[in-house]
Amino acid sequence: MMKYPVNEVFQTIQGEGSLTGVAALFVRLQGCPVGCAWCDTKQTWDVLPENKVSAEQVIQVDGTIGRWADHTGSSLIQAFKDKGFTAKHIVLTGGEPCLYDLTELTNDFIAAGYQVQIETSGTFEVKCHDSVWVTVSPKVNMKGGYKVLEQALVRANEIKHPIATEKHIDELDALLNDIDVTGKTICLQPISQKPRATQLAMQVCIARNWRLSIQTHKYLNID
């Protein structure tokens, strides 16, 4: 059974994208080399051996110190039951979850009756069960130097792009130039909810019939 480095697991409400408002179990994986300047989970970047803890120490706890534990799909499902979690939607996030082959993990979750969403930067190949809802939030020209992969964009059900300026719209247009977006949901998400970014996102969403994604969890002060 494949083991995955888990930073934290918690039950909350999905705050972003087209599934905003859905009760969700967030499974945050440790490890990310992408290097986004505005990342709010930088504690997940490094998988440091000295920060490894026991499996129960990452369930419904504060993950901000960067600790992590090995978990399998079955051990996570058992942890959900032990904690009495009731949400049936699982969000695999990070870090960068697609650093890992998520096929076995997502198969386990779906076989157990959960629906699954992956949130990824699109810089690593997406490997998962066919029914998984894949949200690609393209990270372009980040410090890590990784390119957004065509495979990830094609696999995406939803493309949720963080923006602050017109340059970010241009970057998205360039990424999608050769991608068939039929049936895909395209969301613009203002970086840090700044007023100018929010106004720009609204204008473009209206003009193109795209969708505005606001980080509602930050307004609600929840994880």
Automatic annotation (TrEMBL):
InterPro entries: 7-CO-7-deazaguanine_synth-like (IPR024924), Aldolase_TIM (IPR013785), rSAM (IPR007197), rSAM_QueE_proteobac (IPR027609), rSAM_sf (IPR058240). Keywords: 4Fe-4S, Iron, Iron-sulfur, Lyase, Magnesium, Metal-binding, Queuosine biosynthesis, S-adenosyl-L-methionine. Binds 1 S-adenosyl-L-methionine per subunit. Binds 1 [4Fe-4S] cluster. The cluster is coordinated with 3 cysteines and an exchangeable S-adenosyl-L-methionine. Substrate binds at residues 13-15, 28, 93. [4Fe-4S] cluster binds at residues 32, 36, 39. SUPFAM superfamilies: Radical SAM enzymes. It catalyses: 6-carboxy-5,6,7,8-tetrahydropterin + H(+) = 7-carboxy-7-carbaguanine + NH4(+). S-adenosyl-L-methionine binds at residues 38-40, 95, 137-139. Its cofactor is S-adenosyl-L-methionine; [4Fe-4S] cluster; Mg(2+). Pathway: Purine metabolism; 7-cyano-7-deazaguanine biosynthesis. It holds the Pfam family Fer4_12. It is an enzyme of class 4 (lyase). Mg(2+) binds at residue 41. PROSITE patterns: RADICAL_SAM (PS51918). Residues 19-223 form the Radical SAM core domain. Its EC number is 4.3.99.3. Belongs to the radical SAM superfamily. 7-carboxy-7-deazaguanine synthase family. Homodimer. Catalyzes the complex heterocyclic radical-mediated conversion of 6-carboxy-5,6,7,8-tetrahydropterin (CPH4) to 7-carboxy-7-deazaguanine (CDG), a step common to the biosynthetic pathways of all 7-deazapurine-containing compounds. This is 7-carboxy-7-deazaguanine synthase.
